[in-house]
Amino acid sequence: MRLGRTLNSLEATESVARALAPLLRAGDVIALEGDLGSGKTTFVRAVAGALGIEIGLVSSPTYVIANQYPNRRGPRLAHVDCYRLSGPEELDSIGWDLLTDGTWIVAIEWPERVGGVGGGAIPLEPLRVRLEHGPARGGAESRLLTIEVPGEWLVRPEFPALVRAMRAETRCPITGVPVAPDAPTYPFASEQARMADLNKWFTGGHAISRPIDADDLAGD
């Protein structure tokens, strides 16, 4: 099932994380997709906090490849960044077989660098999370969040709460009208609105709200 929402603030990201965290089980894999600086690490940090992990401990694993976080309140979390890897065989060096033994929740950024979903390194059907840059409003850049939920997760009792959180404030960034998560032009209300948004990026109507820094280029 595909769900979507526009995130206009860190609080909106955290509200989704609070709804997602109770749905997660040990052994689950979260595959995070999106361009540099789109907010993948920020999203993992919010989920970690919602799981009960001290948020101050959570940092980007770009240079160390994998960070592991114990959790007294529930399943422990592994956060893997594959940006600097060139294939699934390189995961052996971080103990991938141990991280996927069914006792961890694993959040993996840049899964396409290790074969992608179903490419061998990620054999289980994961929760797919995609983050994209949205238009800047009031000096703050928004994010377009799409979550694809595995079919077997739909029967988990916590799933309806995630649906409610994801459907909140899901509006077309051009027209402002509500957009269904399964709309073919999501997050836009129509193809015309999608093209209008694309034109704004080409003509300077949209812009990244801050300069690109070293952390962005490192693999978030």
Would you mind describing this structure in some detail?
- This protein is α/β, with parallel strands linked by helices and 220 residues long.
- The protein has one domain (2-217): Rossmann fold (3-Layer(aba) Sandwich), CATH 3.40.50.300.
- It has 6 helices and 7 strands, in the order E-H-E-H-E-E-H-E-E-E-H-H-H.
- Strands 1-7-6-2-5-4-3 form a 7-stranded mixed beta sheet.
- Strand 3 (66-69) and strand 4 (76-81) form a beta hairpin.
Quick gist of this model?
This protein has 220 residues and is an alpha/beta fold.
Per CATH, the class reads: Alpha Beta
Shape designation:
globular
Q: Tell me the structural class.
A: alpha/beta
The proportion of residues forming helix, as a percent range, comes to 10-25%
Quickly count the domains: 1
Radius of gyration: 17 Å
Question: How are the elements arranged and paired?
Answer:
Elements: E1 2-7, H1 10-20, E2 29-34, H2 40-51, E3 66-69, E4 76-81, H3 96-99, E5 104-109, E6 127-137, E7 140-148, H4 159-167, H5 191-203, H6 214-217
Parallel strand pairs: 2-5, 2-6, 4-5
Antiparallel strand pairs: 1-7, 3-4, 6-7
Helix pairs in contact: 1-2, 1-4
